[in-house]
Design goal:
By secondary structure, the chain is α/β, with parallel strands linked by helices. The chain contains nine helices and nine strands. The strands form three sheets. Strands 2-3-1-4-9 form a five-stranded parallel β-sheet, sandwiched between helices. Strands 5-6 form a two-stranded antiparallel ribbon. Strands 7-8 form a two-stranded antiparallel ribbon.
């Protein structure tokens, strides 16, 4: 099967893509990994991406599509795309490659829930352990929240600050959400409501993929 995962930043699409990959034994391909691989191999589009990244700019649709084309041409069988396409233009480019996508799974979680989840995340700058004030809280010690692994004080990642999350969601709704209508018109879209428990979302996701 060839599957695309959609979902707002923080909705858990990457987690579900990984779970489905294990359950169905289908490789997951992420845009970030594809770009890093192309750069490491020194392919023409990889070198172009390296040059753009070195200048601190965003990699263009043209370069990303070129990298995706290289990767898909090297595969024999199904795959899960996580992080591509991000725009309708990229989806159209994927179609022009002749790739026949079986299902497009949209993991839906309301913005306010994503913002709340993100605001509760904590990490340890020293050992990298991750926590959540509600689901997996750090230890409270001397009026501070500290890591249960190494005892260092935990912190909030820049990407998890509410103002940053809201901006990322705004970009998603403007640029990526139109893909829902694009794939719904083609009869490929399946929307899964993200649940409190990851395993429950995985069960619904697998049902959506296996169903008609």
């Amino acid at each position: 099967m060839k599957i695309i995962f959609l979902g707002a930043p923080g909705a858990g699409k990457g987690t579900q893509a990984s779970a489905v990959s294990r359950a169905l034994d289908i490789p997951t391909i992420s845009t970030g990994n594809m770009i890093r691989e192309a750069i490491a191999k020194g392919t023409p589009v990889g070198l172009a991406a390296k040059s753009v990244i070195a200048e601190g700019k965003l990699v263009s649709d043209e370069i990303v599509v070129g990298i995706v084309r290289e990767k898909l041409n090297s595969l024999d069988g199904g795959y899960i795309l996580d992080g591509f396409p991000r725009t309708v233009a990229q989806a159209q480019a994927l179609e022009s490659m002749g790739e026949d996508i079986d299902k497009v799974v949209n993991i839906y979680v309301p913005d306010e829930v994503i913002i709340e989840r993100s605001a509760g995340r904590r990490y340890c700058p020293k050992c990298g352990a991750t926590f959540h004030v509600k689901y997996n809280p750090p230890k409270e010690e001397g009026g501070k929240s500290v890591c249960t692994v190494c005892g260092s004080e935990v912190a909030v990642r820049e990407d998890d600050k509410p103002e940053v999350v809201k901006q990322r969601l705004k970009v998603y709704h403007e640029q990526t959400q139109p893909l829902e209508a694009f794939y719904a018109e083609r009869g490929k879209l399946r929307t899964v409501i993200g649940q409190e428990e990851v395993k429950d979302t995985t069960r619904l996701t697998l049902d959506a993929i296996k169903g008609d």
